[in-house]
Design the sequence.
């Protein structure tokens, strides 16, 4: 989905914000603009810049990979406020601007989300990820992998279903699913099975 040249693939696989900025500057010079470079620059700024303290480097999209599963849980009891926060977040991070740039804009948003989710998954590989019993006991490898799947589904399709935001978050959800599918040979089918079970439970 949304194929890339090898040059752009390198940009979207790179996790370092500084290295990504340098790559983007080079790509703007060496690669033809497909009409979405303006959006790509906006996505980089809203993602990595703290509006209150521009001199500080942050990763607002990575933070949302942590926050969205929380909103999924909160949405069980406070659906309206959670939906409002998700809509605001997508607007502030320019994720809702894809359609304004056509298919090239969809591709830019899709791959930017995948990059953030890729960075999030890289933080899930350490032994401190999701420790059990007040952070004292180490989770087994199977438990850790199950938790990563749970987090990925909750931040995407789970949240969309619970808050009734399927249309607004469709591109984001697909990007999360597709990046999760790269984790192992069975990851994609595991994610799809969880989604199908959730849809069956909703009937």
Sequence:
């Amino acid at each position: 989905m949304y194929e890339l040249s090898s040059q752009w693939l390198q940009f979207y696989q790179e996790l370092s914000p500084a290295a990504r900025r340098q790559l983007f500057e080079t790509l703007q010079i060496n690669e033809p603009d497909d009409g979405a470079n303006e959006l790509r620059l906006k996505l980089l700024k809203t993602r990595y810049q703290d509006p209150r303290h521009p001199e500080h480097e942050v990763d607002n999209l990575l933070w949302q990979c942590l926050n969205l599963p929380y909103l999924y849980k909160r949405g069980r009891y406070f659906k309206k406020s959670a939906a409002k926060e998700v809509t605001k977040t997508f607007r502030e991070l320019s994720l809702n601007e894809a359609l304004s740039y056509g298919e090239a804009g969809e591709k830019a948003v899709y791959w930017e989300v995948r990059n953030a989710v890729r960075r999030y998954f890289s933080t899930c590989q350490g032994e401190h990820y999701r420790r059990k019993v007040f952070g004292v006991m180490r989770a087994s490898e199977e438990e850790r992998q199950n938790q990563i799947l749970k987090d990925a589904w909750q931040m995407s399709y789970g949240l969309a279903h619970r808050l009734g935001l399927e249309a607004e978050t469709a591109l984001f959800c697909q990007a999360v699913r597709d990046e999760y599918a790269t984790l192992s040979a069975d990851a994609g089918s595991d994610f799809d099975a969880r989604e199908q079970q959730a849809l069956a439970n909703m009937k």
In short: The chain has a mean pLDDT of 91.
